[in-house]
Amino acid sequence: MTDRPTPQPGILDIAPYLPGKSGAPGSKAIKLSANESPLGASPKALAAFREAAEQLAIYPEGSSRLLREALGEVHGIDPARIVCGNGSDDLLHLIAQIYLGEGDEAVMNRYGFSVYPIITKATGADIVMVDERDYKADVDALLAAVTPRTKVVWLANPNNPTGTYLSAAEVARLHAGLRPDILLVIDSAYAEYVTAADYSVGLNLVDANDNVVMVRTFSKMGLAAARIGWMVGPDHVVDAIHRIRGPFNVNLPAQFAGAAAARDVEFTQRLKEHNALWRDWLTAQLDGNRMRVIPSQANFVMVLFETPEQAAAAFAALMEAGWVVREIGPSYGIHNGLRISIGSEAAMRGVAEVLNSLDFAS
């Protein structure tokens, strides 16, 4: 017996999630550490959010119907197959809670999203981290890591923090190698920014199978503060999630703003075009002998330096100049790397100027 409440075994062994840093209070530093929208939010979403302020005294509709209907309309999905959540993290937690338990395993690539180990270990299950091939998920290695204990495979596509992706054919090959009782979770958080012609968000696999779900978010397209995630899956998965999700897990202003943002396809396209332009520009500016930029399909780039000390010096120089980027050593073990969100033209030019001016030999 103890003299205070005690967490379940293993909880205090979990390393907490480490968010990207912001500037010091009162500073004018520009945050490029959290992969937020470089163009802010859709004006239509802002107007819808303000409209919802007139209804703050009432509970939101519990199933996020108006948001699901908007998503179904834009993406060609039956709204009944969509579940919304308080950010995609909410839905990922629910999936883990439902399909993982003590003695089970979940498989992920080594540098996959750092939330996956947290939500897996919180259920008492073990996380199996599989080495990548040059910072890209290796389908053969993932399949080789599957055991009779495997119940879930987590796949961020494109991946955070590397920006790499698997083609539609490779994701299909991964799924084809899994037992039917293993749930493949395709986390398409950065789908709005992908320009690769051979990419798929995964809806075709969800439609054709009983063991695939696709998870998305509004956080990267201007509504990070509203915390809106959504998921598409087969009926039996949707039913299970509805049984344990919070009864009002998406607030009313978020539902209004999300529905408007989903329908504002012109703004989403503007975001994609701006991101592609400056992602490619920054990559070309930085990639060379002193730095390596991993080709990205997301709204950030991962820059690798020759040593962890060089990465630390680059981070400090950028911080001093007013650009806050993401150190990825603590969370992902890539100690010689920095993740830089795509921002405004001025931000990208400023970052490139600072990094290209560094003299690592001195």
Overall geometric form: globular
Strands side by side in the biggest sheet: 2-8-7-6-5-3-4
Helix content: 25-40%
Proportion of β residues? 15-25%
Structural class call reads: alpha/beta
User: Biggest sheet, in brief?
Assistant: 7 strands, mixed
Mean pLDDT: 95
What's the total helix number?
Answer: 13
Question: What is the first-to-last residue Cα distance?
Answer: 59 Å
Q: What is the string of SSEs from the N terminus onward?
A: EHHEHEHEHEHEHEEHHHEEHEEHEH
Instruction: Give the low-confidence spans.
Output: none
Radius of gyration: 21 Å
Oligomeric description of these chains:
single chain
Total number of beta strands: 13
What does it look like?
It contains 13 helices and 13 strands. The protein has helices spanning 43-52, 65-75, 88-99, 115-121, 139-144, 168-176, 203-208, 235-244, 252-263, 265-286, 308-321, 329-332, 345-357, and strands at 30-31, 82-85, 105-109, 126-130, 150-156, 183-187, 212-217, 229-232, 291-294, 300-305, 323-324, 326-327, 337-341. Helix 1 runs antiparallel to helix 9 (252-263), helix 2 (65-75) packs parallel to helix 9 and helix 11 packs across helix 13. The longest helix has 22 residues, at 265-286. The model has no long low-confidence stretch (mean pLDDT 95). Its EC number is 2.6.1.9. Belongs to the class-II pyridoxal-phosphate-dependent aminotransferase family. Histidinol-phosphate aminotransferase subfamily. Keywords: Amino-acid biosynthesis, Aminotransferase, Histidine biosynthesis, Pyridoxal phosphate, Transferase.
